[in-house]
């Protein structure tokens, strides 16, 4: 009898039903996958551009992994055989080095993974060098970094406002260094009211002496970058955001 009762219990036990996924849950899952794939493709594309530079607006490399005690002379000596260095800006653990020619930049990229002292350096094309399609946002560089930031913004605003309307603030990122607090990195961004105005400003002001130096100008997507991209790029960024 006990066996019959046990058999009945087994036969009356509910079988596990397969889990059902609602249309809404499936749709949300697909969207998350698409977003993840897009961010992966975007990051891979950016990394490939850094390793295989195409059309560049400047020959600037980003060097990371430097000891704070490393001097500018040591860095110049390390990259000396790559070609002519136009400028070198060093913070505590990273530096920006601009070369005269694209072949010099490519030679510098071959230093990636090489050791300076007992540390291996990371050498990439600086994202400021990558060329963008026409937008209403302008990248600028070449001003005198020793000037007060307010004076730089004022000079930039005065020059560019003659060629259209400047929208929002003029952004000038700063170098991260305990020894150089609030020192401009040497680049900046501003946004014009239209692509036409940005094109006009670039055409008329490229190479002009403004804010103590000859400006290098190009279009930029910096101010329109997706939030996920901004978080990756600017997590540790300290940028000026005062109004012009």
Main-sheet strand order equals 12-7-9-8-13
What general form does the structure show?
globular
Largest sheet properties? 5 strands, antiparallel
Question: Which structural class is indicated by helix and strand composition?
Answer: alpha+beta
- Beta content: 15-25%
Radius of gyration: 26 Å
Low-confidence region ranges:
33-50, 224-244
Question: Secondary-structure element sequence?
Answer: HHEHEEHEEEEHEEHEEEHE
Model description:
36% of the residues lie in helices and 22% in strands. It contains seven helices and 13 strands. A five-stranded antiparallel sheet has the order 12-7-9-8-13, covered by helices on one side. The protein is globular, with a radius of gyration of 26 Å.
Any descriptors?
four-stranded antiparallel sheet; 22% strand; disordered C terminus; five-stranded antiparallel sheet; alpha+beta; single chain; 244 residues
Compact summary:
With 244 residues, the chain is of the alpha+beta class.
Topology:
Layout: H1 2-12, H2 23-51, E1 60-64, H3 72-79, E2 85-90, E3 94-99, H4 102-109, E4 115-116, E5 119-120, E6 122-125, E7 137-141, H5 149-160, E8 166-173, E9 187-192, H6 195-205, E10 209-210, E11 213-214, E12 216-219, H7 227-234, E13 239-240
Antiparallel strand pairs: 1-3, 1-6, 2-3, 4-5, 7-9, 7-12, 8-9, 8-13, 10-11
């Amino acid at each position: 009898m006990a066996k019959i009762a046990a058999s009945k219990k087994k036969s009356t036990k509910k079988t596990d039903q397969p889990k059902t996924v609602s249309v809404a849950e499936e749709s949300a899952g697909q969207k998350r996958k698409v977003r993840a794939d897009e961010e992966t493709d975007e990051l891979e594309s950016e990394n490939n551009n850094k390793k295989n530079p195409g059309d560049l607006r400047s020959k600037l490399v980003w060097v990371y992994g430097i000891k704070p005690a490393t001097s500018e002379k040591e860095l110049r000596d390390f990259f000396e055989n790559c070609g002519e260095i136009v400028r070198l800006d060093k913070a505590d653990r990273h530096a920006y080095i601009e070369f005269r020619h694209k072949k010099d930049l490519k030679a510098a990229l071959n230093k990636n993974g090489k050791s300076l002292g007992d540390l291996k350096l990371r050498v990439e094309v600086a994202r400021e060098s990558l060329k963008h399609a026409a937008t209403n946002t302008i990248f600028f560089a070449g001003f005198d970094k020793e000037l007060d930031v307010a004076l730089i913004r004022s000079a930039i605003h005065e020059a560019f406002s003659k060629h259209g309307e400047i929208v929002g603030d003029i952004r000038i990122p700063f170098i991260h260094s305990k020894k150089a607090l609030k020192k401009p990195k040497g680049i900046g961004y501003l946004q014009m009211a239209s692509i036409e105005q940005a094109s006009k400003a670039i055409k008329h002001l490229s190479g002009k002496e403004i804010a103590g130096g000859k400006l290098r100008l190009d279009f930029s997507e910096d101010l329109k970058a997706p939030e996920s991209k901004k978080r990756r790029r600017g997590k540790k960024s300290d940028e000026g955001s005062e109004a012009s």
